[in-house]
Every structure is written in C-alpha cells, then in structure tokens.
Amino acid sequence: MNSDGDRHIMNIYKTLREEAYEANMEIARNNLAIYTWGNSSAFDPDKGVFAIKPSGVEYNKLKPQSMVLVDLDGKIADGKLKPSSDTKTHLILYKEFKGVRGVTHTHSVYASAWAQAAKPVPVFGTTHADHSTREIPCTEFMSEEAVKNNYELETGNLIAETLKKGKLEPANTNMILVAGHGPYTWGNSALQSVYNSVVLEEICKMALLTITIDVNAKPLCEHIIKKHWERKHGENAYYGQK
Question: Who contacts 3 (Cβ-Cβ below 8 Å, separation ≥6)?
Fold first, then answer.
C-alpha cells in the first residue's frame, strides 16, 4: 500500500475510534453500565472493520486511541489492547444486519431484569409505540452446546435467528433482550445504537412499573400504536422539525 493509501486507512481508523469512543462515553453518561459492564462499536462497511471498546477497561480510563479495530474475520486490524469479550457478537450482527453501523451492549438495570426473566416487553404505551409497533423481543436461553461452542459468536447467531424466526427486520426492530444476559441495540451509527439503548431502558422501566401497578395490564390498542408510529415514521409523519 502506498503512503496515500496508508494515510487514508489511518484516517478511517481514527474516525471509527472517535465514533466508538464517543458512543462508549455516552453509555457511561446515561448510566447504562457501571465499571466495564458494556460496550459500543462503530462500523465501516466499505472497509469491513469496526472499532470497539477494549476488554475490561473502565470508562473513565478510555481514550479514542484505546479503541481496537477488528475486521469481519475477527482479526485485529489495528490497536494494542485486547478487544471486548463481546466482539464476536458485534461481528455477527454487522455480518447479518445490512445497513447497521453501530452496536451497543449494556447491562442496564431494567432491560437486564426483563432479560433475566426471559420475557419480551409488551407495547403498553405510546412511548414504546413511538419507537416500535411490536413487543421488544427476547431470545430463548442459549443451549448448553452453543455455550460450549463459542459463547459470544453464538450470542450473535441467537439474536439473528430470533429476528428471523419472528420475521422482524433489523431496520425496524433495533433492540433485543438476550435471555438471562442483557440488551443489545443497533443503529445507523454508534451513537444511534446508544440512543436506542437509552430508549430501551426507559421502555423496560415503564413496563415494569405498569405491571407492578396492574399485573393484568393489557397492551395498548392497535389503533393508538399505529397512530403514534405513523406520526413519527409514516409517509405523512409530522413529528419534529423539517
């Protein structure tokens, strides 16, 4: 590779590192994870590489240059530190979900509680409907064989299989709970994936409070769900500024 090519690649790596760093800082700012309990990554599909948080490094010790570049074969493309232990899950999601440019995983309290109960989150109210017309899916528990095979890679496979089984499109369903484990979210950028994690945590909190008030609470009626989704995302959406 010539020097211009080298500089171009280094600029791409620098941009990805900065995006991943800002996303991981956003995890901490929004109290989605303590210590080292989460990770976010930023992906460049043209180069087939993503930047991800290094394993076991606390948020207050991170710097943009701490981020590790990994290719879609799972090999380190650039970086001195070991990448997140969840790297292979991110890798599978980038391979399987076209158009995704960022992935976030946390152990936020309310989303993790629903995941530990292995329960999908019903659409109880308009806050949920603003972001999805479907319940937030939860995977099944991973099999013993899959855990022994390659746990993090199989986590990614389990997420992808759950969406396919439910006929859910990653572009419209950008969040999921992994049974017994915690939430994963994705988006068209690393920061967007964190935004979806924040939304997921609030929806899970509201849902838990709802069934605490009324254990027999029923999902929101379909016509209100449709209205709230379409006013924000429909052909004639009118929410927000043009």
Answer: none
Long-range contacts of 42-45 (CB under 8 A, 24+ apart): 42/16, 42/101, 42/102, 42/189, 42/190, 43/16, 43/94, 43/100, 43/101, 43/102, 43/103, 43/190, 44/12, 44/15, 44/16, 44/101, 45/94, 45/101
DSSP, collapsed to helix, strand or coil, labels residue 150 as helix
Among candidate residues 138, 148, 157, the one with its CA nearest the CA of residue 92: 157
Cβ count near 212 (within 10 Å): 9
Q: What is the pLDDT of residues 164-209, one digit of tens each?
A: 999 999 999 999 999 999 999 999 999 999 999 999 999 999 999 9
Q: Which residues are catalytic?
A: 130, 239
pLDDT tens by residue, 99-108: 999 999 999 9
Write out pLDDT tens, residues 24-71.
999 999 999 999 999 999 999 999 999 999 999 999 999 999 999 999
> Residue 103: inside a domain, yes or no?
yes
- Tokens at residue 232, please? 């924000």
Q: CA-based Rg of the chain, rounded to a whole angstrom?
A: 18
Is 219 within a domain? yes
E strand spans, the chain: 38-44, 49-52, 68-71, 76-78, 102-106, 175-178, 182-187
Residue 241 lies in a domain: no
What mean pLDDT value characterizes the chain?
96
Q: Domain of 204?
A: 3-233
Task: Count structural domains, the chain.
Answer: 1
